[in-house]
Amino acid sequence: MTGPVLSMTGVRKVFGTTVVLDDLSLSVSEHEVVVLIGASGSGKSTLLRCVNLLETVDDGVIRLDGEDITDPRVNVDRVRRRIGIVFQSFNLFPHLSVLDNVTLAPRLVHSRARASAEEHARAMLDRVGLADKASSYPDRLSGGQQQRVAIVRALMNEPRLLLLDEITSALDPELVGEVLALVGELRGQGVTMVIATHEMSFARQVADRVCFLDGGRILESGPPAELLDAPRDPRTRQFLRRIA
Ligand code: ADP
Ligand code: MG
C-alpha cells in the first residue's frame, strides 16, 4: 500500500574527477533491513552520507517517504530529524554524561522539555541494558557500551530510517557481539535500516537484502542466502573469497 521509506534513483556523486556513486538506485521498504557490502572505497559511506544530506548529490533523486530530499529548497534539519545515523567512531560528547548525550538533540533541536526527554532517554537506556550508566561519562564506558549509547541517541527522535556505518569496526572483537545483538533487536522491532558492514555473518543474520557495491554501483543484490552463498557476478565472488 504505502511506498518505500527510502528511494534513490540515478544518484551520482563525484569528488573531483572520481565518480563515487554512479547512477545508483536503491529502494528500501518500511521495516526492511538492507545491508551494503563492498571493498573499502566502493562508496558505502558516501551513499549513507548522501541520504543524511551530509553530502549533496550531483545527479539523481533521493526520496524519504516520497519527499524529494535532494531538492535544494528542502529543510535539512527537518529531514535529519527523520533519519538516525551512527558512525564507526562513537562521536559521543566526552564532557557530557550519557543522559545528556542522549537528550541533547531532543532538548536543543526539538525544544523538548528536559523532564520528558530524560524520561524517554532513561526508558531507552533501560531497554538496552544501560540504565545504570545514565550519569556516567563516555570515558567510563566500554566501546560497546558507548556505541550502544550512540544508537540510543540516534533513536531518540523515533526516526523513519536508521543508517549504520561500520558501527563495529572500531570495537575490540569481544565487544562486537553486544552491539550487533542490539541491532538484531531493533530489526525485531521493525526499525527500517540501511547498514554498511564488513561483518558477513552479521549481514547474513540481519539483512533482508544484501547489496554488493563496486565502484559506486550496486553490482548485485539479493537475500543473504543468495548473494552470500551463490553470488552471480564474478566480482562479488572475488570479494567474498577475499574476505572469507
Ligand atoms: P566506503 O565507505 O565503501 O569505504 P567511501 O564512500 O568512504 O567508501 O569512499 C568512496 C570513494 O570516495 C573513495 O575513493 C574515497 O576516497 C572517496 N571520497 C570519500 N569522501 C571523499 C571526500 N570528502 N573527498 C574526496 N574523496 C572522497
Ligand atoms: Mg565507509
TrEMBL record:
User: Record keywords: Transport included?
Assistant: yes
Question: What InterPro entries does this protein map onto?
Answer: AAA+_ATPase, ABC_ATPase_HisP-typ, ABC_transporter-like_ATP-bd, ABC_transporter-like_CS, MetN_ABC_transporter-like, P-loop_NTPase
Task: List the Pfam families hit by this protein, alphabetically.
Answer: ABC_tran
Task: Give the domain of life.
Answer: Bacteria
- SMART domains reported in the protein's UniProt record: AAA (SM00382)
UniProt keywords (A-Z) are: ATP-binding, Nucleotide-binding, Transport
The residues covered by the ABC transporter domain are: 6-240
Q: Name one GO molecular function term.
A: ATP hydrolysis activity
Protein family according to the UniProt entry? Belongs to the ABC transporter superfamily.
Protein name listed in UniProt: ABC transporter
Native organism is Virgisporangium aurantiacum
